[in-house]
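Before relying on records like the one below, remember that each one covers exactly one chain. Contacts with other chains, cofactors or solvent are not represented anywhere in the record.
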Amino acid sequence: MRRKLPGNLRQIASRAAEAIDGPQILAFLPAVVLGAYWIGGEPWLLGVAIGLPLLHLLLPKPRAESEAGSAAEAIEQVLSDYARDRRVAAVMVLGFDDREGLRERFGAGAMEIMTAEFVERLQAELRGRDHVFSMSDGLVCVITASGKNMDHKAALRLGERMQRAVEKPLRLDRAVVHLTVSAGFCLTSRNPGKSVEAIYEAASAAFREAQNNGPSAIRAFDKGMQSSRAVQGLMAAEAAEALENGEMRAWFQPQVSAVDGVLSGFEVLARWIHPERGLIAPAEFLPVLEGARLLPRLGEVMRQEAYRALRAWDGAGVEVPSVAVNFSAAELRDPALVDRIRWELDHHDLGAERLTIEVLETVVSTAVDDSVALSINGLAKLGCSVDLDDFGTGHASITSLRRFAVRRIKIDRSFVMKLDRDPEQHQMVVAILGLAERLGLETLAEGVETMGEQICLGEIGCNYVQGFGIARPMAFEQTIDWIKSRTEKRIDRAELRKA
């Protein structure tokens, strides 16, 4: 472990590093070497020739701290040094745009390689008195000062220079990746609090604002960002608590045969029943959970509610063949997922055929490593069915359908709307159904809102339908009455036909 120098020695070392680390030394290097030879002959010449490179290696350089705890301590020390010298510094947070998308396309290992290259490029661009820290989630923190006059314009120019350095094309195996980087900064003279945490959070808030206006945007912190972040942070904390106290509930939307209306199962949908705000829409809380890396925990909660519902339906004597639960990319990359699902099913005394794995088409089309495929295929071998959700909106190939053991494709509602009245929509769905039939796949149409759409889908060969036209998502307590009511109506219609 590297010992820390006392503050005055660090200051001397840093200034010495600035003196020999910049381009100015190259201009005087020949004169320095000749002067050494003239003063002391060959011994001095040899000493300078060996000493300068050695000094260059020993004196401080911009370096990255890999652990969040040590980085926080180092940031605090650096800012203390700048404050003692009465120098204004800029704390800057930088990160790739669409980090989650990059992780899904290239995998966690490739992200580590890209982040390491990110840090190296920044270190090459900065000076000896600047500091680079690797933070969590692939972000990088840079602390820099320019004399005593670091201001808003100087920080912007520095941020643009770092962006240009990092955004050069990166070769990853055989592919060339073009990356964009957003940056946010806060000057120490505008720290909204008195702590290191406060200024880092301010720079992080500016970074998030930049990403919202990106790609390749730079933003300086202002107090408006602080209040917005406080609200987001509060919601994230509430959402995490809601996962544990039962406020996050599973609601169920029926899936039925397009021909005779027989119930084939339910899709599990997450709902947040807030004690004060009431029902919070998934579009509002799912991004919060994703940002807090809580989607795997949400998936676990939804599965447990699905298992309990299946047991309750069995106990009530109503037939529900299966439930479909959505699995996020983060869950599917977990190598222990298959074993965990096997244990859960055994624990609840349920067959694997009762659980359908629902995967977004975008997850399948962007999965470049084998971890997602191994999980999906492992669950399929276990006996679970695999549904490919939102089919037609991504770029899943026919090879992907085979590679991921898909049993059923869910036709996105954008293709289903008005297909009984729009010839082009009708033709598109017919083409999708023809493809599925040739591949031996079942089909389910989402977003069915009218009886006309349902009848048309049954006539052209769609197997199953789901949507508000059949039933809206409902709490578990409503499902048994809905099932019994629908069964009675089907019996009544059948008896009328006989009569």
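Residues 24-58 form the longest helix (35 residues).
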